[in-house]
Design a protein that fits this description.
It is a single chain. The chain is mostly beta strands and about 180 residues long. The chain has one domain: Jelly Rolls, CATH 2.60.120.10. It has helices spanning about 30-35, 165-170; strands at about 1-5, 10-15, 20, 25, 45-50, 55-65, 70-80, 80-85, 100-105, 110-115, 115-125, 130-135, 145, 165. A hairpin with a 6-residue loop joins strand 1 and strand 2 (about 10-15). It is globular and about 55 Å long.
Length: about 180
């Protein structure tokens, strides 16, 4: 596995190194030891699969606050997504900065999002599936979100969402008060 740290500390793009022969290919998707060597949260308490039927489906921005902050490692295993990570850690030198990523099933990349960052994605193809490894279980009382088009951030999405839940559409603008339990 090749790990490339991004401009927001703790955010990593992880590239698989597949072994291929006449049977097909084999690749590691997760390795506790390699994550740990880089200081990446490697505890997995929950795994989620997000199946998205239509192109331009938007999910996010989502995060959990202390004591249930979660890191997540996500991979696009079918289709493609445009993913944005926002640093919500007040002590971070990149607080409130965001970075975009495009992940495709055939690029064999994973994205690690550290605890204290929010995440959202827009599908770029029909029938897109995302696999997540989460360091913390879902906690309704710690779950937070803000709108995908919050003017504070000036997000640049490749297209307007065609499908978005009422919950994600009606989140308020980001407020630092939402970082508290």
């Amino acid at each position: 596995m090749k790990f490339r740290e991004q401009k927001i500390g703790g955010v990593w793009l992880i590239e698989a190194e597949p072994l291929a022969d006449d049977r097909g290919a084999f690749r590691r998707h997760f390795c506790h030891q390699e994550f740990k060597q880089r200081g990446i949260e490697s505890q997995i308490l929950q795994t989620n699969i997000s199946e998205n039927y239509r192109k331009y489906t938007l999910r996010g921005f989502h995060y959990q606050v202390k004591p249930h902050e979660e890191s997540k490692t996500l991979s696009c295993i079918r289709g493609a997504i445009y993913n944005i990570v926002v640093d919500l850690r007040p002590g971070s030198s990149t607080f409130l900065q965001w970075i975009p990523f495009e992940l495709k099933a055939d690029d064999e990349l994973s994205l690690h999002v550290p605890a204290g960052c929010a995440n959202a994605y827009l599908t770029l193809e029909d029938s897109t599936t995302i696999l997540y490894y989460m360091s913390e279980a879902y906690s309704a009382g710690a779950y937070r979100g803000f709108r995908y088009n919050d003017p504070l951030f000036g997000f640049q999405w490749p297209a307007e969402p065609a499908v978005i839940s009422e919950k994600d559409r009606s989140y308020p603008d980001f407020d630092t008060l939402n970082l508290q339990a």
